[in-house]
Amino acid sequence: MMENIWLASALWIGLALASALISIRLALSVALIEIMVGAIGGNLIGMPLTPWVNYLAGLGAILLTFLAGAEVDMAVVRRNFGASVGIGFVSFLIPYVGCMLAARYLLGWDWPQAQIAGISLSTTSVAVVYAVMVETGLNKTELGKIILAACFITDLGTVLALGIVFANFTAWLLAFAAAMLVAAWLLPKFAPWYFAKVGRRVSEPDIKFLLLVLFALGGFATMVGSEAVLPAYVIGMALAPAFQHDPELPHRMRTIAFAILTPFYFLKAGSLVEAMALISGAVLITLFLGLKMATKFVGILPLTYFYKFDKREGMYTTLLMSTGLTFGSISALYGLTNHIIDQEQYTILLTAVIGSAVVPTVIAQKWFLPKVGLAKQEV
Amino acid sequence: MFKHIVVANDGSVSGFKALTMACELAKHHHSSLHMISVEELPDFPASIDEIVEAKAEENHKFHDVLEQARKIAKAKGINLKAEVVAGHAAASIVERVKAMKADLLIIGFTGHSPLYERIIGGTADRLVRLSACPVLVVK
After folding, report:
1. How far is B54 from chain A (nearest CA, A)?
2. Which residue of B10, B48, B67 to mutate against A (max A Cβ within 10 Å)?
3. Would you call B63 and A379 a contact, using CB atoms and an 8 Å cutoff?
4. Which site from A23, A74, A135, A279 is most exposed, i.e. has the minimal number of CB atoms within 10 Å?
């Protein structure tokens, strides 16, 4: 059946549709459900990863990262620069180093494998944090804005680490970095003019232009041993102010991404989970999840006191910064795809990442919600 | 007997049945009536836009629900206070009922399949179990 490209497509899209319907019914993120459905599908019926599936999944990851970069609110980061950069940087660095050293010396993983463990578990999920804050109304407070800005900084650290750690350190890497920075400098000036010039057309010349930039820089990144998600995030960040001014274009890109591309990415990420490794690796999954949260606490909690958060706010901030999902899964899948980690290690890391989306959020919501109450919504 | 009644309305047919019943009871007991609706946003999303989009859709839905609810209450001569919060339906309603020190919570009942009820459970079940005050379930 899998030789028949259309039947194979029907299977993948069928699973994506089932995930979407389940996510609506349960009010859970579609990404999380797609990973779970992918895991069930991969272990029960087998989901062969053909080159075209890998391509669509890869493109899904690039667009997801680009759109995450485009969500960065630089005005918020600038307004709360000290606290957000301080907390965000530490929130990346301590878990990265802590989890990497634990994987290397406690579990005896190779250095590259330990690096993947560190990067995957250093992340913070901006979207999970944002969802929690909308429910509590914290997104409108100063505390909420600092947390959100810090999440952006942590993600930048993760993406930079993923793009740099495994790169080949040659003159070409410098050329790539220069090309990326020039593009990030020029695009905010050129792109809005170009978008206005071509207007909104069925042929979508604006989206095609952005894809051209992402593919070209992604190709350059891959050539120098870096990762295509690095320029995607940086370019997304560079264009974020333009997109905040006119959100229609990223919205259209998101529709394309979530309809046809990211389901392949998340289903693929889930399909590579080994059921047996899930059982045999339960202790390691718990260990990594605990390590991620512990290292986030070591790094962030003292800083929250330094920045004069009260105890409850400090705990809440630390717990929210301990969440992770998209970038954690992208990092783990990068490790598996590039044969740095094996499928068992991937299963352990991905499950710990998913656990980190759920466990700290639930603890924060249940026991450490700052006293702002439920936010009344304006409708 | 009931000084302060809270009715939960998710915009469904049973939600409005609960509101109609709540208006009758409020009139009979000369109680204040507070309506609460909960916008359910997806948990653990992968992108901020997922939340923004879900919120916009819920806002649109509850704008109509509030208008219709106010019309019903006005027709019955009841001064309805209404609010919309975001979060999990059961947890948010329980929290608000407790905060408002309500005497009675009135909710609608939307049945699910037996399998869904067994595995996931309904909001009505949870509210009956967790509410700090008596609960009237309207079918």
Report:
1. 10
2. B48
3. yes
4. A279
Flag whether A374 is in a domain. no
In a domain, A378, yes or no: no
B85 inside 8 A of chain A by CB: yes
Structural domain count of chain A: 1
Rounded to whole angstroms, how far apart are CA atoms A292 and A358?
13
Instruction: Kindly provide the b/e burial profile for residues A179-192, where b requires at least 16 CB atoms within 10 angstroms of the residue's own CB.
Output: ebeebbeebeeebb
Which pLDDT tens digit goes with each residue over A293-339?
A: 999 999 999 988 888 788 888 898 899 899 988 899 999 999 999 99
Per the structure block, which two tokens stand in for B67?
A: 């208008």
Q: Chain B partners of A64 at a C-beta cutoff of 8 Å?
A: 46-47
* Contact between chains at A250 and B49 (C-beta distance less than 8 A): yes
Q: What is the CATH number of the domain that holds A219?
A: 1.20.1530.20
Residue A28: strand pairing partners: B43
Q: Is A153 inside any structural domain?
A: yes
Question: What tens digit of pLDDT does each residue of A132-157 get?
Answer: 888 777 777 888 888 888 998 999 99
- Taking chain B, what is the end-to-end CA distance rounded to the nearest angstrom? 22
